[in-house]
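FAQ: What does the model actually see?

It sees only this:
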Amino acid sequence: MKMPEGFLWGGATAANQCEGAYNEGGRGLSSVDVMPFGPDRFPVATGKMKMLDCDDAHSYPAHEAIDMYHRYKEDIKLFGEMGFKCYRLSIAWTRILPNGDDDTPNEEGLKFYDDLFDECHKYGIEPLVTICHFDTPIALIKKYGGWKDRRMIDAYLKYCTAIFNRYKNKVKYWLTFNEINMLLHLSFMGAGIVFEPGEDPEQIKYRAAHYEIVASAKAVKLAHEIMPDCMVGCMLAAGQFYPRTCNPSDVYAAMEADRDNYFFIDAQARGAYPVWAWKRMERAGVKLDCTDEDLAVMKEGTVDFISFSYYSSRCTTTDPELLAKEGADGNAVFASVKNPYLKASEWGWQIDPQGLRVTLNTLYDRYQKPLFIVENGLGANDVVEADGSIHDTYRIDYMRAHIQEMLKAVNEDGLPLMGYTMWGPIDLVSASTGEMKKRYGFIYVDKQNDGTGTLARSRKDSFFWYKQVIATNGEDLG
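And it is asked to produce this:
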């Protein structure tokens, strides 16, 4: 089995996890820049701890990251050596509009991405650009409270207008928001939201979600006006919830947990909120600031394809003992219990290759739009041998098993899949923990959790394996 001709093999990164140079080139301060390494990171990411500036008591991994800002030519050359057909990256909003809503874009920031896209095309690599990847300008958080405020829609559209006009001849594929459903779980990271005393978190989260969904729809319309041949997708943090048992209450709980995520994509793909979403908000006392114009825009601005990240499936139950015993991790993004049939990674993420095929089929059954896997990979603690080699067979095993299921979904189930950009082709800063030692890459970066290291790049065993996978269009998985 192999993939059809034109399949977009590649890798995915985010500006805030790899670029660094946070205060160079006219770039303004962004939400990720103030998310510290250490125990305060999760409280900040969830919006429970307010940190809108940097201080001397914390370290901030995004400030240097892996310094791709200065090394992108070297990195893209390595992607080209692997044979990438596609590179998913994000544009840093504050490189283009330092305050988030400036009337004049920052030319130095615009030129940086011009040069980066040119470098991609030099190696025959199509850029897939995430417009907003966990990236809210600090100036807009101070001014509006982030996506709590409807005026964020106009700021986002101003940013979109600048990049669509500038890169209309260089970028065909766009994503409006990265893992849009994460704003329910990591509200500051996803939407620049800090919860103030006395505020109703559910009201704020769903209102912010609505503003992002309207902004996404307006961006789709704008993109098609400026770039008639482009494709614009949405992006979901995916992974099916399984019921822990066949007890009907567990099955219903799993369905409800999945709906938390589909809420966004239903709106972006179908152009309207599903009936259960209105009822759910009504029960929670949530009142959306939703106008007739919003509803019309949502209908007109549906996405062209569905993209998603997949790292693991999830499992849920209504059994209070199991929930108390296994769902107690205060830093878990998704409340989940252990699936007894699966093994887990070093970071506790359960490994479920077949779940990728389940997720692909579920999404296509639901939306009937082309699919794109834009994140999938294994975070692990790599060991550098004395001769500099890195034998990451565990990463190869993980990816081989997932790609096999992807091949079945296309060849046996007949699903239209545009591409596969694995997460972190080069080691980068972990979004959730801020670590460097949780490595995903085919390319090793000499940088440690404490910030030390030369930043030198080197090829792991998986680099050569993935090169062969791409060269044979998925037929040779080693």
